[in-house]
Amino acid sequence: MDGSWLEWVLGVAFFTIYIFCIFTVCMITFQKGRWVLGIVGIFMPFLWLIGAILPPRRGSRYEAAQQSYYQQSATMAPPPPQPVRDTNVKLN
User: Fold this and answer.
1) I need a labelling partner for 46 at 20 to 30 A (CA). Which of 16, 59, 77, 82 fits?
2) Contact 37, 44 (CB under 8 A)
3) Taking the model in full, what pTM does it have?
4) How many Å from the N-terminal Cα to the C-terminal Cα in the chain?
């Protein structure tokens, strides 16, 4: 074998982390409308983290989904509690 056992383990671990980042951080970067950071991030993955942290661009999918979520949660707010009615019952 050309490589040692440790090189294989580290290589597989880093490749697994890279694939995980493609399906999470990279997708968030593209959804936020950060296309350049997403494409260049293929070669320098730390740019995906920067793109995922930056606020979304106007009109991006991420912003539309976020606004939809906020509107839906505002309309699904529980109704205010009903006032207690006076029943004129006296307790002795």
Assistant:
1) 59
2) no
3) 0.64
4) 92
Is 69 within 8 Å of 59 (Cβ atoms)? no
DSSP the chain: --S-HHHHHHHHHHHHHHHHHIIIIIHHHHHTT-HHHHHHTTTSTHHHHHHHHSPPPTT-HHHHHHHHHHHHHHHTPPPPPPPPPP------
Report pLDDT digits (tens) over 22-77. Answer: 889 999 999 999 999 999 998 998 899 999 999 999 989 889 888 888 888 777 76
